[in-house]
Amino acid sequence: MQKIVVAFTLNGKPVRIETAPGKRVLDLLREDFGCLSVKDGCGEGECGACTILLNGEPVTSCQMLAGQIDGDDVVTLEGVCEDGRPSRLQECFLAAGAVQCGYCIPGMVLTAKALLAKSPHPAPEEIRRALSGNLCRCTGYAKIFKAVRMAAGEEGGGAP
Amino acid sequence: MTNRNLSVVGNSHIRKDAVPKALGTAKFAADYTFDNMLYAGVFRSRVPHAAIRRFDATKALQIPGVARVLTAKDIPGANRIGIIVKDEPILVDDKVRRVGDAIAVVAAETQEAVAEALEAIEIEYDELPPVFSTDEAARAGSAKVHGDTNLFMSRHLEFGDVDKAFAACDVVVEGTYRTPAYAHMFIEPDAGVGWIEDGMVTVCASTQNTHYDRSEVARMLGVPNNRVRVIQATTGGGFGGKLDISVQCHVALLVHATGRPVKMVRSREESTEVSSKRHPFVMHCRTGATKDGKLQAVEMKIVSDTGAYASYGPAVITRAVVQCAGPYDVPNVRADAAFYYTNNPMSGAFRGFGVPQIAFCHEGQMNALAQALGMDPIELRILNAQRPGTVLPTGQVLDESVGFVETLEAARAKAGEVLRATKPTQGIGVGCMFYGIGNTGLPNPSAAFVEVTGDGSVNLMVGCADIGQGSTTVMAAVAAEELGLAYEDVLVVAADTMVTPEGGATSASRQTFISGNATRAACRQAKQTLLAVAAEFLNAPAEDLVFRDRKVFSGKDPSVSMTYPELMAEMKKWGKLAVGAGYYNPKTTYLDPQNMAGVPYEVYSYATAIALVDVDPGTGEVTVEKVVSANDVGTAVDRAMVEGQIEGGMAMAQGFAVFEEVEVSEGRIKNPIFSKYLIPTAMDVPEVYPVIVETAGEHGPFGAKGVGEPALIPGIPAYANAVENVIGARIFELPMTPARILAKLHKPPGL
Ligand code: FES
Ligand code: FES
């Protein structure tokens, strides 16, 4: 089978790998780099569980093939944790009670991180819009919104 | 509001499972890999009803990397599974009964080889006439899905003198209500891994009930229960959809046959296609009252399509009948329900077991009645509300654990603050429910083991599966409260059949109540030993001693006290161990099959939701803007988690009320994926105002009842009623799609 070499930055470190060109980035990250925080919820770009940050933008890694990330900067939740400890944003998810089953959470945290990087004090509508590609069946999103507001420094956070 | 003076229960804690989930290190089933592991998949029928004429895996087995293709013939033990009725084959041996029936399992070195093998399997069917509707199922001469009748089950409830009561009513309202099949759409598709450890088949899967899984795997392999181990992987939501066996038996069979680790992960499409769906209901209801507004009689007829297999059908039909009149005092009730087998997708457990369906109906009736009587809908409900002493349609007399009126009043007060309809396109509506905690009229015990170790830290072992709702955190809080320790002192091991005792299913909102009581019982046993040692040391009567905040002290004289480390040192000195085993079985009775008389549940939760919606008259689109939901939970063990249940429930209710519906055509689900089956997104969900109502009663641990399903149910009728109040027409069918709303808006008045 034909292979290609892909070089990219993963969580701040340069990496190179020989892989099948048709391999989904989702599978590449999980299988070849052990980034198990990247979840498969649908494989069709609808749920956001497989979200990664690609050059700072949240994208669904199930919809990308290995060859498409050559030269790019990729961040998974593993790269957001600080020495295996929760970052401030993750601490806000904990404090807000935003975590239920947890399957959507890696994608939620990454999407929220990208939002806050662009807009440090997002309006409630902005938070909703930013997270609208990440499905959660458990929480009704309320405490996830709260976590983002807490991370933005709106302590306790009023109603969204 | 009750004052129990608790130190742990009632706070909000960082959930036991939250840190690894927030870090992304929590291991879901698909995250496990082993050396020498095989990947697996299932060959499924593409036809709804057929005998298999020819099955040939020769070509599949020639594909490099394909290790095994197994069929029914390879099952060493029993080939029928089902939580209540064992009617579902693990692998088809007689005939196909639905699209998606499992016919063979394939294991190979790579996922790609599995896919290729599934393509290469050859099959020919002798198709049988299919049954796609309850009408067809009921028709004499129709094809039969199982045995010689398609009537899977019927239930009859009779209470009081219904006919006489209707004759004396001043007002009778009547309607036929329809609810569709819904899909759980947990975000994690079903998955599992298996391996052999110490000669024992071990399965680690996404599940709501490890002990049930274990018994099915053991029966399939023909070995005793304790020769199989089932461990719950971190589970990405369930909502009832992971109560049935999914991959557990298929994985175990391949592990048993190959001796190698095996992993099976369903695609979203496969997961939706073969996991159970909510029973679609057709409900015909008459409700009668005297002109003072007092309910006199309810009569309900329910027909449902239970699909190809029984699954939790018996639980749904019984609960629907028992709870059909809603949270009201109704002296005369009759209900008849009939569930039919068809060749459609399997209906089963889904958050509420039939109550979301009947609540849409009984609440629609209450609103119609309020209108007919010219009464305020909330006043009508308060007038008829169940209260302590109310006699239910089963003859059960309610005790003091009833907080329905409190939920109505609390929701009304909060709604007065936060909900305002300011335009003609906006409307406010109300919906209520009650929910019996635990299985209906059946024993359903849970157990717990506990050990307070030498330094005062605690190991608690419960069979109860945490599927994201937070039971592990609840159990830790209950144990800490009972033992007088801190939440942080308790480590919970949950849902591992080799380590933890039976916990029953994580369903029917039962774990806080039942596993919580079991945990408390186990802790009380351990405490007996601690108490005796402390009493001796402190020279104080045992009955005066209080365990709290890592101390033991005399309630009469708090200066007579010792710390937990001192207590554990004393325990060591005397060679005592603080261990406990406890179990709890709710106080229920079997129901009389003639009329459903008996005690179906020990305790009930109550809830009232009041919602503000907007209906776009141009497009027919319904937006749920805000909702207040007041839930009587007895005692909130963890306030943030109760709120989280209510917020999640109100969002799910929006999906059910406004846009979700499984479309089935010729037995096949047309919308098994998120791009076709939409669930509420961050843009859709209403602003939710959860109100926690705490009431008297000591049935559950520190008075806690349950909230998982009650958190969902009242939202559905509240949204429907709010829409009714905008468009001025009754809603008899869910979901309230734009097309349905437009049809109502453009109907001539009076129809
Ligand atoms: S798995 Fe990629 S969007 Fe769902
Ligand atoms: S927490 Fe379960 S899907 Fe979001």
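Residues A 40-43, 45-50, 60, 62 surround FE2/S2 (inorganic) cluster (ligand 1) (CB under 6 Å).
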